[in-house]
Amino acid sequence: MTQTQAPRPRETTVGIGGAAESTDMVLNIGPQHPSTHGVLRLRLVLDGELIQHAEPVVGYMHRGAEKLFEARDYRQIVMLANRHDWLSAFSNELGVVMAVERMLGMEVPERAVWLRTLLAELNRVLNHLMFLGSYPLELGGITPIFHAFREREELQHVMEEVSGGRMHYMFNRVGGLKEDLPAGWLGRAREAVASVSSRMDVYDRLVLGNEIFRGRTRGVGVLSGELAHAYGVSGPIARASGVDFDLRRDEPYLAYGQLADVLKVVTRQEGDCLARFECLLEQTHNALELAAACLDRLAELPPGPVNQRLPKVLKAPEGHTYAWTENPLGINGYYLVSKGEKTPYRLKLRSASYNNVQVLTELLPGTLVSDMVAILGSFFFVVGDIDK
Question: Which listed site, 19, 220, 331, 377, has its alpha carbon 20 to 30 Å from 354?
Answer without folding.
Answer: 220
